[in-house]
Specification:
about 325 residues; alpha/beta; Helix Hairpins; Rossmann fold; four-stranded antiparallel β-sheet; 13 helices; 12 strands; about 15% strand; elongated
Length: about 325
């Protein structure tokens, strides 16, 4: 950092002046090294002399030069140090103010509670999707790392109402809870639901019991991290090609899964899958494929003859840039 380099140069110059002054007084005035150092410090700091003063004409001339150079360098050191401190504090203060203004303008955004490894992965995914989000983090060290990545941040305890309100929970559309303990995640979900009943919440959990409690208060999805991790480890041995494909798709972003809700009055209601593909021209126009239908809590492994009903969610796979074309389709 340029400012730190300036401070180091200034301190080095001051140290050089003290050494030269000590050697000069010792030679010209015949002082002991300690008294010479004492007289040098008294000179460059302009505090005046007490019992030790320059006696010879050469010593007085040397003192005048030392005062001119020493005082200037001392002031330079103090200014650089003060500048470094103030710049850091002011930049942090202005940065936090900017963050607050930015978050205050967000609507229908996502809130990530926890800026650790899981939270930053979620942030990366939101960023890839072009989704507005803000991270809540209580640990100052982690918060500093989040700021260094230029991610929007609210520093505070996510389980407190004031922190959630500062993050815009009342205007948010979704919340991801990645706190380390089940009790904190559960308490956070309760608090968030009280502030915004329409908020869609996804949370991590380490036990089935905690997951049941979260579902009972309206959490949309609870992820059991250990179970998912264990399943993926096993499949890396039994079905490595599938795991590699999913890893490629999620990392590169070239291939994506899109879910589309079948609303009332949609053209594809009560149509079979093969008819829907014809109506939408999925393969010809978009280059995508319908891979599943989600009906309530059930995932249907589709066949061409399966019927799509109102309220279903259709899952489509294809290249990301091509899936964006679905926004212009009015069949859903």
């Amino acid at each position: 950092m340029e400012q730190i380099r300036h401070v180091l140069i200034a301190v080095s110059l001051l140290a050089l002046v003290v050494v030269v002054g000590t050697l000069g007084f010792a030679y010209l005035e015949g002082l002991t090294p300690f008294n010479a150092l004492y007289l040098t410090i008294a000179t460059v700091t302009t505090v005046g002399y007490g019992d030790i003063v320059p006696e010879t004409q050469g010593g007085k001339l040397f003192t005048m030069g030392l005062i001119i150079s020493g005082v200037g360098i001392t002031l330079y050191v103090l200014i650089e140090i003060m500048g470094l401190v103030l710049e850091g504090r002011l930049s942090k203060a202005f940065g936090i103010a900017r963050e607050k203004r930015s978050v205050a303008k967000m609507k229908n955004h996502k809130i990530i509670c926890g800026g650790g490894r899981t939270g930053t992965v979620a942030a990366d995914e939101f960023r890839k999707e072009g989704t507005d989000f803000v991270i809540i983090e209580h640990d100052s060290a982690i918060a500093k790392e989040v700021r260094e990545k230029n991610l929007p941040l609210v520093e505070g305890d996510a389980t407190l109402d004031d922190t959630l309100i500062e993050a815009g929970v009342e205007r948010a559309s979704g919340l991801v809870s990645t706190l380390p303990s089940d009790s904190d995640n559960l308490f956070l979900c309760i608090a968030a639901k009280e502030l915004n009943k329409n908020l869609e919440i996804v949370s991590r959990a380490s036990s089935e019991e905690a997951a049941k409690r979260m579902y009972s208060i309206g959490v949309k999805k609870v992820i059991l991290m250990e179970k998912i991790g264990g399943r993926r480890l096993a499949r890396s041995l039994t079905k490595p090609a599938i795991v590699d494909f999913l890893e490629f798709a999620t990392k590169t972003g070239e291939i994506a899964l899109e879910s589309l809700k079948v609303e009332h009055g949609a053209k594809i209601v009560n149509k079979r899958v093969k008819e829907v593909c014809t109506i939408l021209g999925i393969k010809e126009k978009v280059g995508a494929t319908i891979v599943a239908i989600i009906r309530g809590d059930e995932v249907i492994n589709i066949s061409p003859e399966d019927e799509i009903r109102e309220g279903d969610t259709v899952v489509i796979i294809g290249k990301r840039e091509l899936l964006d074309k679905f926004e212009s389709l009015d069949s859903f």
